[in-house]
Amino acid sequence: MLRLFILITLAFLTSCTPPCVDYCVEGADEFVIDSYQIRQGKLSILEMEGHCIGELPFDAMLEYEDVVAEDDILNIAVYHPSRRDLMDSINFINQTIGFKVTNKCVDIPDIPPVYVAGLTLTEAREAIQESYREHIHDIEVFITYKDRLARKVDLAGLVSVPYIPVDGKIRLYEILSKARVPTNANYFMSYVERGGELLPLDMHRLMVEGDMSQNIVMRGGDKVYIADPTEARAMVMGEVGRPSPVSLPAGYMSLREALVLAGGIPFTGNKNCIQVIRGGLVNPKIYVLSWQHIVHLPNESLLLIPGDTVYVSEKPITRWNRFISQLFPSMNGVTTCNDAYQVFIP
User: Fold this and answer.
1) Where is 99: in which H helix or E strand?
2) Does residue 197 register a pLDDT over 70?
3) pTM of the shown model
4) Spatial distance between the Cα atoms of 272 and 82, rounded to a whole number of angstroms
């Protein structure tokens, strides 16, 4: 509420005239230049807002050799022409709990625990098969992952599954596809966290525009958050049909579209005084535009970003009319009292 009050005050202070306070007031040309930077995507918007954007890890796009880790649960199957009892017992464990890697080893019927941590699946299969063949000839071993408690990506927000295992090849696009993210998700406010740091990624460019330069290889321990559509909004206020916040699921929206969603500008609005207030409360940047800019410039040249406030001033005659409408009841009361006073005066 305090922020809203201050922004309203700023709008009145500017009133499409040179402000009496030292705020940065720009015209349509600066708004168009900033909109060009906004079109470059999330990272450009963050830079424009003063955030320091780092680089992706050098190996972010590289596939890596996946290995068995502590607490992984393996699915192991064996085949032997005469040991049906062994095959049935191993199959029963697979269907119930699987074979969990504990103390870097996996415990399998009829043989001592086999060391598998740090091995690839192929190497783990060979180690188990070699251990079996010391006791049982002609046995074949097959191995896959049943579940991974450490080597997985945790998912939160607007997703349908809590986590997805990684294998050294699975990428962000496939993770989001498997997570069944709804079409109205806010990819601008969504993020990937690795090692406690947010990666400089633009998921909107990946999922909506098909930019595969954002399609990193996922690693165990990564966290993905998918934001709700309402988590990025701009505010449209003043002389509009429905003063209200508007959601920006792509991270930006044209000024024209925002005004339409807010019910347009009625006859009481001053179409020569449309202000966009951007930035923090300490040093906001205020753009002053007219309806002619909005009508004649392309949509992509006039873009809003999350946190922007659009304020449409009222016409001077509107202020006068409102003043008169508020004054009339008082004037009528004064007139009535004066008439009554005149009756009693001889």
Assistant:
1) strand 99-100
2) yes
3) 0.75
4) 90
